[in-house]
Amino acid sequence: MSYLVLARKWRPKTFDDIVGQDYITQTLKNAVSSGKTAHAFIFSGPRGVGKTSTARIVAKALNCKNGPTPDPCSECTFCMEISLGRSLDVIEIDAASHTGVNDVREIIENIKYLPTSGKNKIYIIDEAHMLSQSAFNALLKTLEEPPPHVLFILATTEVHKIPVTILSRCQRYDFKKVTVEEIRKQLKTITSKESVNIDDETLHLISQEADGSLRDALSLLDQLIATFGNDIKHEEAIAILGILDKALLKSVLKSVLQSNTKSSIESLNNAIEKGISPRRFAEDLLKVLRYSVLVKTCGKSVVAELSEEEITDIEKLTSEVNAESLESLFNLMLEEAQNIQKSFYPQMALELTLIKLSTMERIVPIEEIISRIESLRSSSESDYGKSGRMDEHRVGYTKKETPGDVEPEPIEKAEDPKPPEPEAKESMPEGNKEGSFIEFIKGKKRILGTRLEQANEIVIEDSRIRIICGKGSPEALHLKRQESKEALKNYSGEFYSREMRIDIEETDSPAKKSRGGGMQSKDIKEQKAVKRKKIHDDPIVKEAEEIFGGRVIDTKPN
After folding, report:
1. CB neighbours of 363 closer than 8 A, spacing ≥ 6?
2. CATH 1.10.1760.20 correct for 246-359
């Protein structure tokens, strides 16, 4: 095949061609220039960021006819052979298919021979973490003390699988993901030299889709060129790559923030009609919510992978939503996205997730709650003052505006207002009095009040309280205890303001209303219901409901 894909055609040839790994390339250039190149390196990092390419450039820098040099010519015989993978002195080994001790033993046997034509013999072991433990152990001694003409470079995407004994014998360089902007600039340079017409928006989308891998970005660009030639339109690129249109994501986010469930489901249906999988949709929506939280809480500078236009759109969409609500939406989406990835019915799971997001109650910040409480307090205090209950008569002094030091004259003390006429109190029925007595006892000692409430009847006779219980009933046994009778005597004296005699009687007859109109359970429930309604109808409670936009769920009268 004569066609060469972009990832190979535009493979870096010098240290300066490596994109996004400046500190590594500068360190290696300095090491080559000073002649202090280590005998073993470990290049670790994600896929497609230049690990193997850098290893080849190191080999060229050491074997170039002008070398060792930090700027290999890439034109001499040695450089050309290394670039084409034909050099006998640069041996590339795929550790994924050469994992055993025998493969390492072959390396050990061959390193004692001098280079064929170059100055150094270089072993590049790709995906080194795939070597077995026995192979690592066999390589250990050779890696620590190789012959002076041998250099080892181990490349891996999972450095944590490399034994510590190997790591301690190598210089380690950690390659990082290439930023979206760096990938976009490189793609722009390549497309301009390849005479490909493509929008910056499409290049930015490809850069985001590559997830930090320049090789992946070039592969996506190659796919578009193979499909549409040198004239690529944005809509066609989205369709062929299966990338979710950002406009749809923004529409979904807007619908969720506006609690518009119908619109969010419609946007999902549009995406699925265009061939976007529900799992991919959930993943992209989770990313958008992440960006929203980051922009809202940390500012736009922390989101390097988004363009200025995208950040501005997110700021507009979330301008009226607080950070706490966005965090709640993100947490819910994070949890549900995991379920969607595992689900046999991802579309149904995603639809339910969008309904949850759209109907989720927004969180009110604590500062706003405190502000509303202060507003409610000020309002209630103002109403209280208008009622006249806060008016006071004070005695003070006033100073006349006369020259010289003049003793302040006391203000005449306001006459004490006549005490208000006592309001005529309605006579409380005996039943209410006894019901209040039971509530009083329950406030003092709940178990005692409960047993008292379970009695058949309670009869008040001047300075005597007769408590009639069923024969052998739990309440009778409890109330007949000495400590219970003492407690009842003390509490009744406190309640009735006189010493009361307590008599506990047992009877075989069923419960009946006492001769003094004793309070029964039904009467107590009715009284509690009246108290609840009174509290619920209180103007302050009504105002609180209006301010907070809430409702009373339960009322517990004291």
Report:
1. 322, 324, 325, 328
2. no
